[in-house]
Specification:
The chain is mostly helical and 319 residues long. The chain has 16 helices and no strands. Helix 4 packs across helix 6 and helix 7 packs antiparallel against helix 8.
Amino acid sequence: MTTHFTDLAQRAAADGQVTSQEILALRRQGWGDGIITREEAEALFAVNNAIDTRDDEWCDFFVEAIGEYVLNGTKPRLQCNAEEAEWLIAQIDHDGVVESFVELETIVRIIERAENVPTVLKDYVLAQVEKEVLTGTGPTRSGGDLSATHISSAECRILRRVIFSSGGYGPAAVSRFDAEMLFRLKDATLEDENAPEWGDLFVDAVANSLRGFVLDNAQLSHSRKLELVKFVESDSPGMGGFLGAMASNSSKFGRNMRWAKEHLTGTDGPQNDYVGDAKAGDAVTGNEQDWVDAKINQDGQVDDLERRLIERLKEESAA
């Protein structure tokens, strides 16, 4: 199946375009055995690099297929391990630039869908967007005549999706790294006419980083999820095996059940006091206050976005 798929992809890219019929054929071949393999995923990257026009139909198929390989090509599902993240970045960054918006969208969609992704993947996307804002060039710019430090609506949407994604630092949680990046963008674009969404994004995200919190076990790591999957698939495939294990070896069964209870319920790891965690996260610590004060005071003036941030923090403290 893989060889046929690769041949089909090479023929599709030969004339610099991919037709609807060719996309349908690739879809049938790719999902014919239920999975997208690495060889097939690399063939699709080769097609994307070769074609002149990337219409919506191709972009939708490409994003779906690459996401299927990265998130579901190996167990556990909906997880991206470090090796897969490095492979994905290497495919996109092979010549030092992100060639097309569809490549950027592919990573963003993976981060949104994933239960967890390596930090390097999220940081890579944010670095690409920051570079595009500061240079005025890149796949979100589409050849427009924007200034080098103008933050576009497309960039605001990508930043919000990645920063608040389920697969990032924590579901809907903003890290200090993210907040630092947003301050850099703000300082670089103060004199520019940015997208209307930019102000809300900056205030929402930085306030979240100061007043939000992340549960200790909000996300399962790749290794932990794989461990649980292997346990579920091991030894006792059905009720007969389950009862047989209980009858034949009660002591071993008891140990296995204790292990399962601890690992499946999370009682072997950090436990959450939800009310306490929420209250602690809602309070701006001395370290956090020192950080935000330093960011605001570093240029000797308080700009409009910083003023909005200060008002937001005051409102939330009073609530």
